Amino acid sequence: MKISAIIFDMDGIIFDTERLYYKFWKIVLNNYGYNLTEEIYKETIGVNIRETEKILKKYFGEDLPFHEIYQKVLSLTQDYIEKKGVPIKKGLFELISFLEEKKVPKGIATSTEKDKAYYLLRKAGILEKFEAIVCGDEVSKSKPEPDIFLEVAKKLSVNPSYCIVLEDSENGILGAYRANMIPFLVLDFKHPKKEIMNLAYKVFNSLIEVREYLKEIL
């Protein structure tokens, strides 16, 4: 397999944050009288904040004070991270080191807004490890549209067809597939539907498994 770059999603791939976000969204929404179920939250995984707002208002109504609630979720998240650090997915550092050794370019395509993404990456000490980062507020269309992946490939000056994308969400896998890239599904908080899983080139349980597979093909 010819590989020109590896593109990482962030939440659920680099950071073990999806369960954390669900917990804080649930707490804050409950304080406002809304019941966030796991099923509703899972619809928001892999989309940008504009799409998240649309999804939550679909269930809770247009009167939902979304931005006020979102700021409180951000505050809880930041307090947690300042005290306990960023929860990092197992095998991340080893995978990054392996790709550096093989001189494979690394990018990030995250639906998270730039300020928040860069804050998390700096806290984890890995911001400088990636040659290109594109965030959810830097493209007009959210995943599952391919725009964010194609923009990362453009910044890396590589052929999209030879880019492996590490994703955990349905929207991410579909977006990578639409970008004509090579989707690797790394299972996390939400297991995609069968038809989406079938779009993945390979399915893994962890980044440790991803590294072992890449050892065989690089």
Protein traits:
218 residues, alpha/beta, DNA polymerase, domain 1, six-stranded parallel sheet, 10 helices
What do these coordinates show?
- With about 220 residues, the protein is an alpha/beta fold.
- It has two domains: about 5-15 and about 90-215, HAD superfamily/HAD-like (Rossmann fold); about 20-85, DNA polymerase, domain 1, CATH 1.10.150.
- It is about 50% helix and about 10% strand.
- It is built from ten helices and six strands.
- It has a six-stranded parallel β-sheet, sandwiched between helices.
- Helix 8 links the parallel strand 4 (about 165) and strand 5 (about 180-185).
Question: How do the helices and strands line up, and which of them pair or pack?
Answer:
Blueprint: E1 5-8, H1 18-31, H2 38-44, H3 49-60, H4 66-84, H5 92-101, E2 106-110, H6 114-123, E3 132-135, H7 147-156, E4 163-167, H8 170-178, E5 182-186, H9 194-197, E6 202-204, H10 207-217
Helix pairs in contact: 1-4, 2-3, 5-10
- Roughly what is the average pLDDT, rounded to an integer? 96
CATH class of the largest domain: Alpha Beta
Helix-strand string: EHHHHHEHEHEHEHEH
Which architecture of the largest domain per CATH? 3-Layer(aba) Sandwich
CATH fold call of the largest domain: Rossmann fold
Overall geometry comes to globular
**Structural class designation:** alpha/beta
The poorly predicted ranges are none
The count of DSSP E runs of length 2 or more, i.e. the number of strands, is: 6
What is the percentage of strand-forming residues?
A: 5-15%
Number of domains: 2
Cα end-to-end separation = 8 Å
**Biggest β-sheet strands, sense, barrel:** 6 strands, parallel
* Rg, nearest Å: 17 Å
Q: Strands across the major sheet, in which order?
A: 3-2-1-4-5-6
Fourth-tier CATH superfamily name of the largest domain: HAD superfamily/HAD-like
What is the tally of helical segments?
10
Fraction of residues in H or I helices: 40-55%
